[in-house]
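In response to reviewer comment 3 from the previous cycle, which asked for concrete evidence that the modeling workflow produces usable outputs, we include below a single protein chain processed end to end. The sequence was submitted unchanged, and the resulting structure tokens are shown without manual editing.
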Amino acid sequence: MKILLFAHLRDELGTSSLTLDLAPLTSAELLAELKQRYPLLTLESVMVAVNEEFAGPATVIGADDTVALLPPVSGG
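The workflow returned the following structure tokens.
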């Protein structure tokens, strides 16, 4: 599974993407797994997109899917 990181997530991990070997899981389970692996990662209010479509917490993510983690955006 390829995970694309943007904004502060990229800064916190020092990379723009991760490749993880995970069994199929929901987007909520993926966020919990990432929080366990990377405890300092700020995942509150992060939106998940799977294969370029926004995903709800129950969306199942397969091993060959591409996930984008999109933090909230502020502007002025």
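Residues 26 and 58 are 5 Å apart (CA to CA). We consider this sufficient to address the reviewer's concern, and the full set will be provided in the supplementary archive.
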